[in-house]
Amino acid sequence: MTITDIIYSRRTIKSFKADPISMEQISKWLQASTMAPNHKMTEPWEVYLVGPETRAALNHKANFFNAPVVMAVLSKHGSTEVEKAENALATACFVQNFNLIAWEEGVGTFWSSVGNAQKNREILGVQDEYDVIGVFGVGYPEEISTPKDRTSIEEKIKHLP
After folding, report:
1. CA atoms of 4 and 160, how far apart (whole Å)
2. Which of 25, 40, 44, 67 could bond 76 through an S-S bridge, CB–CB 3.0 to 4.6 Å?
């Protein structure tokens, strides 16, 4: 599969099989994800692997669609507002790298913003100098949805003089 095939075929998964994924595999994908662009090599990401007790406390309405692995990805604030924004963007690139490399191996993800609620930040033990970029269900898809239509990029391009 080419990277183009991976990008076009990747979907958000809302129904996972119970099949386990080894922590060795997750670690391999996370290591590859660190190749994300990040301004001044801040490497602002932190990954929390969420265990059953924490997962239950988060009380996600769909229980992360029964994904066998749940992880939270955080971004460390910078010393300025610009660096904070750059770090969040770099961490989003880290997440996208993870999503694509996992998808290449038949594993999908579900990205939730549940970690942004103050109560859930406390459950996760997130320090004030971090943003929660997302809490992710990770697993083999039970179902893969049909892609939704996208706006043509031609409608999004502006040519400047």
Report:
1. 28
2. 44
